């Protein structure tokens, strides 16, 4: 009887290991190769994309195609872009003291709640890169204070949104969604 039990356990263990191996292979196959890496060259995004001066919320030309988050460092503005280049939402943001270089990134991690490097409680944190050890991502201050300028003496990578815009970003920018940073 003991031989039968150990045979069943060995069979179940082998099946479990096979399943885990298959799932790991599938997960690796579905994640972009450069997920978590630094910026990649973005041949269609100029260093300063032309803007529609009459409509600042208009999607800048040259910011890519397909589903993506577009972040303009110079204009302090974000666009959530659905497939077909349809802008779902555009809103102003307040950047931290550390800016990401222009390029293409992917959402690598998310946290529902955290404390920012400036000590402020934040929610809906969507991270996409780091610069000199400073995590760069979008977030909303729990107290709603997105209009206070970042302290330049503290290295912060939080790109602050209103709570309403942060909620929209949280729903849109899941792990692996592309983030295009333009000047």
UniProtKB/TrEMBL annotation:
The superkingdom of the source organism is Bacteria
Q: Where is this region: Disordered?
A: 35-67
Q: What is the protein name stated in its UniProt record?
A: Secreted protein
UniProt organism field:
Streptomyces bangladeshensis
